[in-house]
Design brief:
7-stranded antiparallel beta sheet, 35% helix, alpha+beta, 474 residues, 11 helices, globular, 3-stranded antiparallel beta sheet
Length: 474
């Protein structure tokens, strides 16, 4: 086999040399026949050859992984999730993953997400510019955006896929949630090559249990352990140059919860399918609700209807801004705002066996500096010190108390091992009171209920929509 490979490589080199010789012969003939004109043609032809070499990588090139590929074989222990937890070995990744994802692809072109046609609005915009553009004009836009934006978010998405697949292998009953989060986040930092605000974690790892729908991660001293009968939402993000991938799934081990997870997964896929340029938000919400609430689940012998958490939504995503302004409802409403070309969206749905309405409750762990934070006088020196740390380390990305108490304060690139924040709670409270930092307490349905979540990030491209975070797991 080795000799055969060497022979093929030699033949390929010989073929390239023959083509170059043929082109050189053609150029010499043109030079002899045309004198000065021949020289001009020769120079022009060489310039064209250089241009072709430069543009070849950009047009139609696909991801080329490292040559030492393996065969995935490990299945996840939790339910409803598909694929293999070690799927990344096919790209030459180690098991467990240790190689930065950018180093796995020799040509620095990263895997494309799932490509789907745009959803169609039932009430299309008359003479919409989107529909007046020709297919060629849309393809031209794609080429302009391809290298600068698409590859960047695809890299962030591939990091998310590899991190979450690895996490799916070690999330089992008996693990402490704080250990789970720290293991997942360290893998995230390693694979994305954490570089402060330029690349890193998009927001803290959510691991909300049962009736808690979102915004819970363990604070220092919280030793909660995952149980067999728990329903846990795992929600984390990656970011490169502020381009955030927001993606979540639900972990359950008891098969009686399968119908709940399947209902929410199907509802999220419905929202993704309906999304598209010029589609109204109310249309997406209505479709999601119709699918979600057609399901029931029987838990401990009692049947429950699956309800949408009507005050939770998907959202648009902007650079360094996880909630960019537009909301994607998961129930029928009268929001006539439309999706637009070039926008990023997190399509997420929450299904509950409770009342389908969440309220803020329990101890807060998630915080984020307001994107349009006001200038406000701060009385405490600890507030000013903490604000400087937040600006340097997180900017307007979300953070949690666990990160403030790390030796690196949340980023080794930004702080080295001297970033740990001491006695910061009074300062954090003042920043929240001043409206500079916003607290995000856990969002809870009624106690005793169970909430599930699935979420993907998509991009509305000129020619299609790309589900960036789609994987073989969900």
């Amino acid at each position: 086999k080795k000799k055969s490979d060497e022979l093929e490589e030699s033949l390929a080199k010989l073929s390239v040399k023959e083509e170059e010789n043929d082109e050189d012969d053609d150029e010499e003939e043109e030079g002899e026949e045309g004198g000065v004109n021949g020289e001009d043609k020769k120079k022009k032809k060489k310039r064209n050859k250089k241009k072709k070499k430069k543009t070849a990588k950009k047009e139609g090139e696909s991801a080329v992984p490292a040559p030492n590929a393996g065969v995935p074989e490990k299945v996840p222990p939790s339910r409803v999730i598909g694929g293999y937890t070690d799927y990344y070995v096919k790209y030459g990744q180690t098991e467990p993953p240790t190689i930065p994802v950018a180093d796995l692809f020799s040509n620095k072109v990263y895997p494309e997400g799932e490509i789907l046609p745009h959803g169609l609005s039932k009430d299309p915009v008359p003479n919409s510019f989107f529909y007046r553009e020709t297919a060629e004009e849309k393809r031209a836009k794609e080429r302009l955006l391809n290298e600068e934006v698409y590859n960047k978010v695809r890299l962030a998405a591939e990091v998310h896929r590899q991190v979450r697949h690895h996490a799916q292998s070690f999330i089992k009953p008996g693990i402490k949630l704080v250990d789970m989060c720290e293991q997942l986040e360290e893998c995230n930092r390693r694979l994305v090559q954490e570089r402060g605000l330029d690349a890193g974690i998009g927001f803290p790892t959510g691991c909300s249990l049962n009736y808690v729908a979102a915004h819970y991660t363990p604070n220092p001293g919280d030793n909660t352990v995952l149980q067999y009968g728990d329903v846990m939402k795992v929600d984390f993000g990656t970011q490169i140059d502020g381009r955030i991938i927001d993606c979540a799934w639900t972990v359950a081990f008891d098969p009686q919860y399968d119908p709940l997870l399947e209902a929410v997964k199907e509802a999220t896929d419905t929202g993704i399918r309906c999304a598209g340029v010029d589609v109204q938000m109310c249309e997406i919400g209505e479709s999601i609700q119709e699918v979600m609430e057609s399901h029931t689940v029987t838990i401990n012998g009692k049947e429950y209807p699956v309800k949408c958490c009507r005050n939770l939504n998907g959202h648009s995503i902007g650079p360094y801004q996880i909630h960019h302004g537009k909301s994607v409802p998961i129930v029928k409403n009268d929001d006539r705002a439309r999706m637009e070309e070039g926008e990023f969206y997190a399509i997420e749905t929450f299904g509950s066996t409770g009342r389908g309405y969440v309220v803020e409750d329990l101890e807060c762990s998630h915080y984020m500096k307001d994107f349009d934070a006001p200038r406000a006088p701060l009385r405490l020196q600890s507030s000013r010190k903490l604000l400087n740390h937040i600006n340097k380390t997180f900017g307007t990305l979300a953070f949690c108390r666990r990160w403030l108490e790390r030796d690196d304060g949340g980023s080794y690139t930004a702080n080295g091992f001297s970033g740990k924040q001491e006695n910061y709670m009074a300062g954090l409270r003042e920043l929240c009171t001043a409206g500079i930092v916003h607290p995000y307490p856990p969002l809870c349905d009624i106690k005793g209920s169970y909430v599930a979540q699935f979420e993907h990030t998509l991009l509305l491209r000129p020619t299609c929509k790309e589900v960036l975070s789609r994987g073989d797991d969900y």
